[in-house]
Amino acid sequence: MKLKTKLTAAVLGVFASVFALCGTFSAVSLKNYSLDTAASEEREKLAIAGRAFRQVGTREDFEEMGEIARDAYLKYQFRRCYKDGYALIKNGEPLVNLTGYEIVNLDALTGEYAVQEVGGRRILLLMEPLLYPDGFAVLAASDVSSVWENAGRQAALSGLVFLASSLGASLLLALFLTRALRPLEELKNAAAAISQGKLGTKVAVRSSDELGQVGQAFNQMSDQVEQQVEDLQLLLGSLAHEMKTPMTSVMGYADSLLHVRLPKEAQTAALQRIYESGARMEQLSSRLLSLLGLYENDSISFSEIPADALFRQVHEDCAPLLKESGVRLLSDCPAHVSFYGDAVLLSSLLANLVQNACRASKPGDPVRLSARPGKLIVEDSGCGITKKDLPHVTKAFYMADRSRSRSQGGSGLGLALCERIAALHGASLKIESQEGQGTKVTVAFTEHLQNDEYFEKRL
Which of 68, 103, 208, 436 is most buried, by CB atoms within 10 Å? Predict the structure, then answer.
């Protein structure tokens, strides 16, 4: 069953229940009001007739009469004063009955009035005692079947009104729900389109209510999925391209060794080239596994790390590259500055940044490694990064100058790895660079995230 059908049925069910309760209450209230009005009118008639009946004699007159004479006299006077619809009651038994009905079970008449069903008709009964003589009362009986008939007609009319209003409400509700739920139908179709490979499919957002917010979230998700797939395609394409170059080199030199008689020096050079290409593939594989492995956080251990200890480790890790490139690494580390994180990951982050700075610098140029409260900074005065390349340098396998990067052993994964490590520490990676003037990379930690509670949640 569709949601629109469920909502329509639920609303109509509530509407029917409320209408039924209101209709029942209205019908019962109308009936009771009509009965009270009829009883009040009968009581007034009894009072008028009673005043006339009391004129036929005094209490003393009736006390002087014998019972038979008194009863005969009262019968005569009762027929003179009262018309049809009344009865004279003596000690619970009818003495004169002008009601046209058989009077039985007067003991049940205990309230202000009673309604009894006689021959399919409903009769309203009221009894008013006479002031004198004692033991006598006047019973009024009137047919109030019309009250029930009116109530029935009212119920039937209410039913017709309910059916007509329900039909109209159903049509209006169906139109309203069709319009209101149209965004959900569009979301369903868009999700189906994405599942069939039509990435980037979006829905029109026409309102700012909850459905509109869901639509906005869906569009953001669609953009994110499309971007993720594009990044993955770029990653796979770049990986295939990066692996092809050293593999071609390995195959070429291996073929020469197998099929060509080379001098000893040429053989050694070919083997050296094969070794270098294998080392490049091993480095590329290691970097890629490191990047992917950072999504598995179980092995990450956070603790307080003094900045000077972190810098010493970076110096040790980068010592061979610094010696080879002739670049000077200068450290600026104030006392008592520390960071909360994983020592291995943070040293790897800084080592990657220092290696990138060394590759961008000329021999003798300085690379500055600085620590400030909540910040780690790596700065060089090398070749810099163009404005066109700057927004993309943290993407996996992206290299601004591919020929220079490959010649210096770069894989295009360093900054992507750095950005992931920074994110795991609640930090951001800010890269400032101008072509020909150097690059400054700042790892900025968010102060309120540098605490145990945050990292317990992250891990």
Answer: 103
